[in-house]
Write a structure and sequence with these properties.
The radius of gyration is 20 Å and the shape is elongated. α2 crosses α3. The protein is an alpha+beta fold and 145 residues long. It has two domains: 41 residues, Arc Repressor Mutant, subunit A, CATH 1.10.10; 72 residues, Alpha-Beta Plaits, CATH 3.30.70.920. The protein has five helices and four strands. It has a four-stranded antiparallel β-sheet. 37% of the residues lie in helices and 21% in strands. 12% of the residues are buried.
Length: 145
């Protein structure tokens, strides 16, 4: 990717629905150039799609949390498979540092989060965990300095 691609992607991250004319004006290039770069990024699989960012209270999302998990030994695959059996677990990410996995949880109530965490503690191979409940999401377009 070149510098123009990087700047274009940064603009699209802020607003994936920005008009091509506005993108071109901001980048100081023609609309044709912007369309060409967007098409190439899509064809190369670097841009997979465009999304809409919703106001946090626009749709009910329930309770969301992130659980950082330390694994004993080489049991990551076993632990991952067992975590995915829990309905609260949406996604699991491998990571580096103190924690081996990060699990994204979503439930309707705090009680359901508590129940999921209780079941997680029963999974053999989990050495330690730490959970943070997500209170709000701050999207780039909503941050004002």
């Amino acid at each position: 990717m070149d510098n123009l691609d990087d700047r274009l992607i940064a603009l699209l991250r802020r607003n994936g629905r920005e008009a091509v004319a506005n993108l071109a004006a901001t980048l100081g290039v023609s609309r044709t150039t912007v369309r060409h770069h967007m098409t190439r990024l899509e064809k190369e699989g670097r841009v997979l799609g465009y999304t809409v960012t919703l106001r946090e209270d626009a749709i009910p999302r329930g309770i969301r949390a992130l659980t950082m998990i330390a694994i004993e030994g080489h049991r990551a695959d076993l632990v991952t498979a067992r975590l995915y059996r829990l309905s609260a677990v949406q996604l699991i990410h491998a990571t580096n540092g103190k924690w081996d996995l990060v699990a994204e949880l979503r439930t309707e109530t705090l009680e359901e989060i508590d129940a999921a965490l209780t079941r997680m503690r029963e999974i053999e191979g989990i050495a330690a965990s730490e959970t943070s409940i997500l209170l709000a999401t701050r999207h780039p377009s909503s941050v004002r300095v």
